[in-house]
Amino acid sequence: MERTAIIGIGMTKQERRKESETFSDMVFEAVTKALNDAEMTIKDIDNIVTGCNDFWDGRTISSMAVGDASGAWDKNISCVEGDGTFVALYGLTRILSGSYRATLITAHSKGSESISSLITNAMFDPIYTRPLGLDAITSSALQAKCYMDKYGITEEQCAMVSVKNHRNAKNNPYSQLPMDLSVKDVLNSRRLADPIKLLDASPITDGACAIILADEGMAKRFSKHPVWIRGVGFCADAYHLGDRDLAECKSLEKAAKTAYRMAGIENPFKEIDVAEIYDAFSYQELMWSEGLGFCEKGEGGKLVESGKTEMGGSMPINPSGGCLSAHAVIAAGLIRIAEAVLQVRGGAGKRQIPDVKTGLAHGINGPCGQSHCVWILGE
Amino acid sequence: MNKWLETVEPLVYESRIKVPYTWSVGEVGSRFLIELRDHKKIYGTRCPKCNIVYLPPRKTCSQCFFNLDEWVEVGPQGTLITYTLVHYESSMMPMKSPFAYGIILLDKANTGLVHLLDEVKSEEIKTGMRVEPVFKDERTGDIMDIRYFRPVR
Amino acid sequence: MAKRVAIVGTGQTYHKSKRLDVNGVELIHEAVARALEDTELTRDDIDLVIIGNMDHFEGINYVDMWSIDGSGGFMKPTIKLTTGGTTGSTLAIAGYHMVASGLFNKALVIGWEKNSESDTTAAINTAFDPIWDRLTFAGAIGALAVEASAYMDDYGITERDAARVVVRDRKNACNNPYAHLRKEVTIEEVLSSPMLCDPVKLLDMCPRSDGACAVIFASEDVAEKITDTPVWIWGTANRHLYSYINDVNFHGLQSLKNASMELYQKCGIKEPLKEIDVIELYQPYSFGGLLWLESMGLCKEGEAPKLVWDGVTDMDGELPVNPSGGVIATNPIGATGLIRCAEVARQMMGKAGEHQVPNVKIAISTGFGGCMWSDILLYGKDKPY
Hints:
The complex is a heterotrimer. Chain A has 14 helices and 11 strands.
């Protein structure tokens, strides 16, 4: 793969309800920050890929709402409907194809403007599953139960993820729910769908993120600290929940393998210094850690117990606070990339992990992590 | 602009999307749902190459990737693979909480069916338990013609 | 290293107003199976699936995930793009870039729509800004009618001129077995059809169809091994200029003008009318078949009617437009832009059967949608550069 870099990032504060801002207001703020970060103007950007979702945005052709705000006037533009990691991946290929030199990626959502359960219910098959009223929480609960039963993962271990990530969020000025919690607090929080409790679940969030990808020439011209893209991979599993062994994440294993091969990574636990992974629910951080090869299968619970995934551990996961602390769907994966960029640059402020050479960012699409996208970033 | 906004209450425009849908269930879905409606029978489709019996029935094997036309009657009993007890309310849910969802592997099927569990105390629900469908009396040809699954007694 | 990219095969469903015999996933699979058959490839050979439609027409969130059984994306990289009417062309452009990146060798690109499953206009209405546009000025026909009125006013274009475009496309569609409306119409029939939104009448407008289209894009490393007649992508360009319909300048399709100019420059096209052998134009209504040819620089402003009346764009003319019958005959929205691409490929491969234009060496397909947006792709029989 030719050398491409992320040379600018920008994000809004992630909040429960940005009542006074429209989608385009949020996106414009993120874009302006990303351009400033890269010391560029919109004139230096030659193409744009937005991340929009018609259901979350409540409008058909949702990309129409953010074209202006993304600086798309008279430029080539496209739109990926899915998590921000997938949006950025298409943006990356537009540079690798030799067609463009600087791609602006944006992603946004306002969970506050509708009812999340109704939107996630719409991802289930209208004939066979949707009438049951399944949504992201109940379907994930089925997965959590399946995973925890198969490998003996405990609710306490899941709760430890929540405690860790909410604590990490205290160091992140953009995050929504910085909190000091105990494992007991999580275990005693309101039961949503067993084994998932309120504090095992990510919140409803409004927010936007933008990043700028550039080819080597542009990166060197504009950026004092380009963060290079070393590997990417994505893969999708079967759709119907009953088709999959929900305790496994085969598509993540495959996506990670592709990204690691590209990046020349043989031992991810040793070679990756920090990971921002998509923890929509606490159990997911454990499951995805296994899928990413940070530990053996079924050892995700022990991994969090060991403290290795804490800020001071050998494999800090989600120093930003993760999705558990702020979950602007669609933007969330792009925020994982932006956070990994900050870590590699050494610009993550109070949430900085020392000496990060290689960072990982991860995003998901579809019910119960049906599809995964993995990014490896480096100095 | 932000300063000005602090002096007033930002307006919020309330609306909703109203689009009615008529989803074709197709030949495969029609056959499955008509069997369910008229005979209280549950059918899957079998891939002759990999032998997987799909439920819900599929026209295509996602792996071998050709059309399936062999029908296999599955169940009606099956084994509970996993479940969750739901404690919150939502307008689209067909039951009042607390209620349970399960993934059920019907006998002779190779893929699980997501459905409701009932006629069972929550503490009695166990992975691996045997369950059977309870059908509606007045069936209309949709997946809710199965009211729920209950333990085999 | 960036790779050159070619289309190596295509597949379409037979487009109809209602396909009750299949659900969406099965409809998708029909097109995919035909594309695989066309290339003699199997699902195992594909290393990327790109799919798109417009969500609210079927009411399925995360269509790329839901359609895995039919698309062939199981345990493969799978991604969804959507941009409204331009979705199909957006998908083709993505197929090009993602394969050109060198990360993927063979991409299966799928556009589909089952318009019969919802109220198309109700769904399109929600495209426009809920506060500024939706209540006053929405639905595709209204905006197009405004464009038509402005065009008639600017250059003295008549409804009869536009009707001539319909007659051409409907005639062409009769030779395309996949087309939805396969019945010729006369100018008088078009003119006397019910008025929808002055001056646009029922027969000036595209229908809504159920259908799917799949196109396989391959990198130069493998394209010539798959087919003797690869269709090379020379370049792509697009403009989605406006966010608000009230902002649009309706005098000429600005987005198509700008995108065409960029593309001609990239590909070294100096005299498009002479150099291009066939165009599949995303033309959802008759007046676009005139005005937009001008926006593409095929003739001077106001002169498109002459071009069309003179037969230049007919099957046996200098530059046949829409030999497939175009959008006026077939319109499964999320597939429509990709069908333009597939039809161009079939022309260049010599596989267009009854509607074959002889000796196609350079061709164009376009996409239209959103807020008067345009996409455009240029294809060549020869490898680019």
